[in-house]
Structure to design on (647 residues):
């Protein structure tokens, strides 16, 4: 049974403003999570008030930094240190900054883009339904090719 | 607020005897579905390899040509998936846990199945040829 | 100005069940600041999704922690089922609820024993663990193992409990309730325990809300927060009531956990009466494509499982946010201004489960 869960994508410059607005409306910070994408990271801020769940999503590229929200929510420092240590995303102005010693691992930033191999989505499923549709496509393609060739001939 | 509230229980325990078993003199009673260790009835096994494919810990190794089945009991997490998936029900879960060993290799348990009876197979083939 | 000392607390300490480290900055006997330090048991379990497909990963989720083992596999299965849109049969939901409540009972009794051991009450510790054995015997009779149950899977549960066994479970819990009554009256009424717990480690309701407290720590400060009221599994058909206290000190947290244990015994009885007949699992087809946050109420608070799939049989991301991780900032606030001798008590009423925290 599913409960309504909202995910709102925002830019990193609007982050602190929206978080301050949530704080004034009485939401509590539930978690800050991070996922590795192909070329960057997706940071997820989750808030909850009376069991209604809202998420703010910020996408950053590799090496970009994000501002800290620990000025608004004091308990965010633990999550932000974890993101910095495991993923390598620099977070500026955390109120208690461990400087990389919160998680002591053998490889630095084990979850970063270089170290994580994302699973590939299956390609066969995309090709299979297109097989019966190939025939009509083949019929249309030569006509499109003819159309593109015709104006070129005219231009020449 | 009361004091000495625990005295009654303490006296009952003193007079009632210990709550622990004198193991290994008295053996522990296991239930019928306790997950202890995996064993194979090698005469029934058809070496299809389904248990090896399903194992999440990669503890079972099956070689069909030489008819060998082996399990590394130190890797096995007794999840019972191999027993459920076996098509001929030759695998079973005993309710006694595997005993302790002295080194990492000591947990490997190898079984070799009987060779396929060749005469019967040849007779079957000849009979089929003659029928045709 | 008083002289400041730094006293290290942990990772090895007779009171702690798992390793965590606090650097306590003290002036004379009062703690002025506390700096937590984790990562003694970091195993990097979240990267194992690259090696095991989404059906086999339930066994890894079971092994994140020993005490909260069933709830982790329950949260994971729920997250994947919601992504794939699988409807779990009713009987499986009720069975999951019964095992979850039994998990809560055994975890709280264990906590009671360890907390009693922390302030030196050895006989109460031994008696609690003796009573806990009957719950572990129920686990072994119904699932085959005592601690890591391995009975929840994506699409339902793997074993069934028949009606005879259910009646036996309810009877055994009724006997347990009588024994628990005796122990808990020691906990609630004894003069020496009250002397050590009342007025110690106070946190106000506002601080608990803004610092992100969850679980019994929040409910003891007056916040009525219980994820079971959302209605996952079979809780929508049962009578769940969050136990709330308003005093906000260590004694209130103990009371909340004691009351929750009795409430769980009642919930198991309700679930055993209402359980319907039917299948216990459903066949899983396809692969997960999407994302979902699944929220479950563990014995220590609210746990969040986040799963994201992109169509292949390996998940793209799996994240667990455990209640102890969320309670650590509040713990630091509580430790400031307390006496050094009270620090083990306060940390134990937080009920830290460090192997969950640092998966």
């Amino acid at each position: 049974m599913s409960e309504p869960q909202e995910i709102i994508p925002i830019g990193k410059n609007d982050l602190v403003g929206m978080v301050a607005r949530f704080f004034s409306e009485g939401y509590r910070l539930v978690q800050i999570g991070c996922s590795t994408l192909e070329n960057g990271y997706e940071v997820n801020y989750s808030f909850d008030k009376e069991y209604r769940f809202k998420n703010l999503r910020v996408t950053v590229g590799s090496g970009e930094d994000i501002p800290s929200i620990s000025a608004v929510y004091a308990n965010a420092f633990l999550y932000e240190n974890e993101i910095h240590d495991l993923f390598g995303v620099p977070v500026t102005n955390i109120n208690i900054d461990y400087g990389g010693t919160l998680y002591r691992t053998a490889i630095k930033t084990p979850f970063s883009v270089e170290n994580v191999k994302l699973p590939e989505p299956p390609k066969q499923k995309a090709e299979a339904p297109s097989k019966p549709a190939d025939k009509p496509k083949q019929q249309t393609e030569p006509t499109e090719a003819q159309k593109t060739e015709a104006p070129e001939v005219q231009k020449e | 607020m009361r004091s000495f509230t625990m005295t009654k229980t303490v006296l009952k325990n003193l007079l009632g005897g210990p709550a622990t078993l004198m193991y290994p003199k008295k053996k522990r009673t296991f239930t019928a579905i306790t997950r202890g260790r995996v064993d194979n009835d090698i005469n029934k096994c058809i070496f299809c390899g389904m248990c090896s494919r399903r194992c999440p810990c990669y503890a079972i190794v099956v070689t069909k040509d030489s008819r060998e089945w082996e399990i590394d009991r130190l890797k096995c997490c007794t999840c019972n998936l191999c027993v459920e998936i076996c098509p001929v029900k030759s695998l079973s879960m005993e309710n006694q846990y595997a005993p302790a060993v002295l080194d990492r290799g000591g947990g490997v348990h190898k079984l070799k199945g009987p060779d396929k009876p060749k005469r019967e197979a040849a007779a079957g083939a000849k009979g089929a040829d003659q029928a045709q | 100005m008083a002289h400041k000392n730094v006293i290290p607390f942990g990772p090895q300490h007779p009171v702690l069940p798992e390793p965590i480290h606090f650097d306590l900055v003290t002036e004379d006997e009062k703690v002025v600041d506390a700096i937590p330090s984790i990562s003694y048991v970091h195993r990097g379990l979240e990267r194992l999704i690259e090696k095991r497909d989404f059906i086999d990963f339930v066994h890894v989720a079971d092994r994140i922690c020993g005490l909260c083992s069933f709830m982790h596999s329950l949260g994971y299965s729920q997250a994947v089922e919601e992504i794939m849109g699988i409807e779990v049969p009713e009987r499986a939901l009720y069975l999951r609820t019964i095992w979850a409540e039994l998990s809560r009972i055994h975890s709280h009794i264990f906590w009671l024993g360890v907390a009693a051991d922390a302030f030196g009450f050895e006989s109460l510790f031994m008696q609690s663990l003796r009573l806990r054995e009957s719950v572990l015997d129920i686990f072994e009779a119904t699932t085959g193992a005592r601690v890591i149950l391995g009975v929840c899977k994506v699409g339902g549960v793997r074993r069934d409990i028949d009606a005879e066994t259910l009646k036996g479970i309810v009877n055994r819990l009724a006997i347990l309730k009588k024994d628990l009554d005796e122990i808990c009256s020691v906990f609630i009424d004894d003069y020496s325990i009250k002397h050590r717990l009342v007025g110690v480690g106070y946190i106000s309701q506002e601080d608990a809300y803004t610092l992100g407290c969850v679980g019994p720590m929040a409910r003891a400060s007056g916040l009525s927060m219980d994820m079971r009221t959302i209605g996952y599994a079979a809780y929508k058909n049962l009578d769940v009531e969050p136990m709330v206290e308003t005093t906000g000190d260590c004694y209130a947290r103990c009371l909340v956990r004691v009351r929750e244990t009795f409430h769980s015994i009642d919930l198991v009885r309700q679930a055993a009466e209402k359980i319907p007949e039917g299948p216990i699992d459903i066949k899983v087809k396809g692969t997960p494509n999407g994302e979902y946050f699944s929220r479950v109420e563990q014995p220590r608070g609210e746990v969040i499982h986040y799963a994201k799939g992109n169509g292949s049989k390996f998940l793209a991301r799996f994240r667990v946010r455990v209640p102890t991780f969320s309670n650590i900032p509040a713990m630091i606030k509580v430790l400031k201004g307390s006496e050094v001798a009270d620090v083990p008590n306060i940390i134990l009423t937080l009920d830290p489960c460090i192997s969950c925290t640092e998966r």
Notes: The mean pLDDT of chain C is 87.
